[in-house]
Amino acid sequence: MNLNQVTFPSTDIRASVEFYRRMGFEQIVDSLHYARFVASEGDTTFSVHLLPEGERPSKTVVYFETEKLDATVQRLEAAGFTFLQQPRDEPWLWREARLLDPSGNEICLYWAGENRLNPPWKMPKA
User: Buried b vs exposed e over 15-39: b needs ≥16 C-beta within 10 Å?
Assistant: First the structure.
């Protein structure tokens, strides 16, 4: 199986659409309650859907990988995005930066390179 689609809950669909378009994602579906985007690298898609009033977004963290992490963060900051965490090297051998979307969903921009699928502590094949 191939994981391709993740859907973010949104408390304000228009604000979410503007946020992800400003990040550089191409919007491919639009409705009053739902929007879908294609990743700027590769062909993965993700969506935002309007939450019923009173419901809260999940605490799931969504990861977008880019080899040009530091340059991407600089470009987004210049466009007015605020990061919770600047790019930093983590003990699990990934470089990560974090921000929130307008609904409070946590987004991690990262670069892991070979360590994403083959960390030094990878389990041996059975």
Answer: ebbebbeebebeeeeeeeeebbbeb
Q: What is the pTM of this model?
A: 0.90
**Residues 6+ positions from 92 with CB-CB distance below 8 Å:** 115, 119
- Give the per-residue pLDDT at 126: 81
Q: Whole-angstrom Cα distance, residue 72 to residue 98? A: 12
Can you tell me the distance from the alpha carbon of 72 to that of 99, in angstroms, rounded to the nearest whole number?
A: 13
DSSP calls for 46-95: EEEEEPPTT------EEEEE-TTHHHHHHHHHHTT---SEEEEE-TTS-E
The answer to whether the CB of 110 falls within 8 A of the CB of 94 is yes
pLDDT tens-digit series, residues 69-117: 999 999 999 999 999 999 999 999 999 999 999 999 999 999 999 999 9
Q: Which residues touch 31 (CB under 8 Å, ≥6 apart)?
A: none
28-32, 54-58, 72-76: least confidently modelled range: 54-58
